[in-house]
């Protein structure tokens, strides 16, 4: 039996998994992401954790097929990162550096949202398809495109950056990316809260509550008119954006994940409605699914990159 | 030496080319597209023309690597067409039918805009790149996405249908596709004329002329304020749309073709300006080029599909 590691680097923790070559997860754990001093400790910490796990499980280098690794920044297929918002890294050759730290073990890097999309295709909400678009609705909006079983990386590693597609030409507020009118400003948890706060109606379900994305969807489920309006607005922006994505890559299915997707069927329904309303004939009636792997999508996707390279 | 045929089926004529296996065009000609009776004669006419050319050039079946064929509808990699606006076809298995008519010669089909994009990458404005997005600005707006030298076909053959991405959520006029606010409504020749006619100013360059896309760009080149405003509006819609495409597929370069692109540098400049204004950091500063092959892009792309399959 051979083995591989799946690694998902986040701004706070690095999630790690040890897998068999048949895709079975044997062990998972986390280490802290040490971002101080331009994140210089992150890759050495990962290398040390991998070696410690190999010692614990009595594995030798020849038994390890490789390491797949998702990270929160655009990264090219060669493992070049230009800049990261959360890790402290500027320009960094992640594949070369980590392979050196691991005495030549093979490392395959990917953008975290793209890698999570691959994981969901393999073992989650996108099972049974080989071309999907995944969108992750959390504090921000991440995206990943999988075509014929492979991540669409793009030439600068920015493939699948769906959260920063422009969906509103008239927006005046600035997105975290510096532009205006990005999907993230309406479809993230933060975006939903901002839309809901714009004009809370007297007597609305939200009037006496902390306004959260969950509260907005809960209100809509109870039939509150104002919350339903906010959900429609959310669904229209996301449905149109996914329709635009489909006009470019024509996937088999969409998978929606992240904290906001806990709203469930009501969210799928409203997105699907606006998706179909805005799509040309050949693109109507795609499948929409909720993500299933939660925080494990990254380590599964990372390992899949290694197993099906 | 071996040979192949490049075929580009349009609503009025079928363009055909005979190529050497090294990509050199030996001969090109056209036949009429007979769309009557659900277009039943189109494929037999093509087969007959191919056989006649082989007889003329004294070629036998064993010397023909295959036929590449672009057609004006979404088509899957298996050669399934669901419907065509211009050919009279409903559901049709084009690959199977044409291969039978040609006694088993290999046929590779593609959507015409996608095939033209491949041709431009190979021998035209996208030479030197292997991942490009091409947009064709004619009566309508066509698009094609080439990633790592291959057409992005999509699961229903609707990959690269950029003309029907929604760029205006507030549009009330209906596009040819049945939706509202499609890129085609602003970036096609027809769209530019419609925008220009909305509110022609007294004393504008256009006041005493037939309003055409060319006249609008000519006026802008002469510094006419109104024409410049229309060109800015065109550039903003197209620049934002191409930026949105880049957030999905992150290509190396864009190629702009079709009749409208005859406007030249002024068009590239305005599109590039709005592209950069609306793109996230990693996606700024892509190359923009004019298409170079004109009506031959289709036969070149068709042959490239056969040669690099």
Provide a descriptive summary of the structure in words.
2 copies of one chain form a homodimer. By secondary structure, chain A is of the alpha/beta class. Chain A has 10 helices and 12 strands. In chain A, strands 3-2-1-4-7 form a 5-stranded mixed sheet, with helices on both faces. A 5-stranded mixed sheet of chain A has the order 10-9-8-11-12, with helices on both faces. In chain A, β11, α9 and β12 form a beta-alpha-beta unit. In chain A, α2 packs parallel to α3, α4 crosses α10 and α8 packs across α9. Chain A starts with a strand and ends with a helix. The relative contact order of chain A is 0.16.
Oligomer: homodimer
SSE succession of chain A: EEEHHEEEHEHEEEHHHHEHEH
Quick one: overall form of chain A?
Answer: globular
Binned, the helix content of chain A reads: 25-40%
Question: What's the quick description here?
Answer:
The structure is a homodimer of 309-residue chains. Chain A has 309 residues and is of the alpha/beta class. Chain A is built from ten helices and twelve strands.
What brief labels describe this structure?
homodimer; 309 residues; alpha/beta; 5-stranded mixed beta sheet; 10 helices
């Amino acid at each position: 039996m051979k083995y591989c590691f799946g690694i998902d680097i986040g701004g706070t923790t690095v999630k790690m998994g040890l897998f068999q070559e048949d895709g079975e997860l044997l062990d998972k754990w986390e280490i802290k992401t040490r971002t101080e001093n331009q994140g210089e400790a992150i890759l050495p910490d990962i290398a040390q954790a991998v070696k410690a796990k190999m010692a614990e499980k009595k594995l030798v280098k020849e038994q390890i097929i490789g390491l797949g690794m998702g990270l929160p920044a655009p990264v090219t297929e060669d493992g070049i990162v230009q800049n990261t918002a959360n890790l402290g890294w500027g320009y960094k050759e992640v594949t070369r550096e980590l392979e050196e730290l691991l005495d030549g073990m093979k490392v395959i890097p990917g953008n975290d949202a793209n890698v999570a999309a691959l994981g969901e295709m393999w073992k989650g909400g996108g099972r049974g398809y080989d071309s999907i678009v995944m969108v992750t609705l959390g504090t921000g909006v991440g995206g990943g495109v999988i075509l014929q079983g492979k991540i669409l990386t793009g030439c600068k590693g920015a493939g699948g950056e769906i959260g920063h597609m422009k969906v509103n030409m008239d927006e005046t507020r600035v997105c975290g990316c510096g532009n205006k009118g990005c999907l993230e400003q309406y479809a993230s948890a933060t975006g939903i809260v901002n839309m809901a706060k714009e004009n809370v109606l007297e007597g609305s379900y939200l009037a006496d509550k902390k306004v959260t994305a969950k509260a907005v969807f809960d209100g809509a489920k109870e039939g509150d008119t104002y919350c339903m309006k906010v959900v429609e607005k959310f669904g229209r922006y996301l449905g149109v954006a996914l329709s635009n994505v489909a006009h470019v890559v024509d996937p088999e299915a969409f998978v929606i994940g992240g904290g906001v997707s806990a709203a469930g069927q009501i969210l799928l329904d409203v997105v699907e409605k606006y998706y179909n309303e805005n799509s040309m004939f050949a693109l109507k009636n795609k499948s929409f699914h909720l993500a299933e792997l939660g925080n494990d999508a990254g380590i599964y996707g990372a390992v899949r990159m290694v197993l099906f390279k």
